[in-house]
Amino acid sequence: VSQVANLTLVNSACDMVSTAYASTKESHPYLRSVCDAAEKGVKSVTEATASCVQPVLTTLEPHVATASEYASKGLDKLGEKLPLLQKPVEQIISDTKELVSSRVADAKDAVSS
């Protein structure tokens, strides 16, 4: 999970969502109270679940470690094949706009000639 979270694309996308969430909460007082209540509920459920799940996680720890190792190798291969994962969202959007603009210009030139 931490390896996925550290991917530039995922990290920048999370930052964008977090910023939008904070901005929305700040701009809309009614939504802020709903969001605050939801956050408290999630925190309570997480705390209650953590104590129940811990014994199961301890038992499954060797299996989780093996799965984690395979997942890590798979993510490394995925990162090699998809360099897009190492770019921030802003750059991907900018590159996409540039590519579309270029293609539209090419199409205009083809039609006009």
From TrEMBL:
<comment type="similarity">
    <text>Belongs to the perilipin family.</text>
</comment>
<dbReference type="InterPro" id="IPR004279">
    <property type="entry name" value="Perilipin"/>
</dbReference>
<dbReference type="GO" id="GO:0010890">
    <property type="term" value="P:positive regulation of triglyceride storage"/>
</dbReference>
<dbReference type="GO" id="GO:0005811">
    <property type="term" value="C:lipid droplet"/>
</dbReference>
<dbReference type="GO" id="GO:0005829">
    <property type="term" value="C:cytosol"/>
</dbReference>
<dbReference type="Pfam" id="PF03036">
    <property type="entry name" value="Perilipin"/>
</dbReference>
<keyword id="KW-0551">Lipid droplet</keyword>
<dbReference type="GO" id="GO:0019915">
    <property type="term" value="P:lipid storage"/>
</dbReference>
<protein>
    <submittedName>
        <fullName>PLIN3 protein</fullName>
    </submittedName>
</protein>
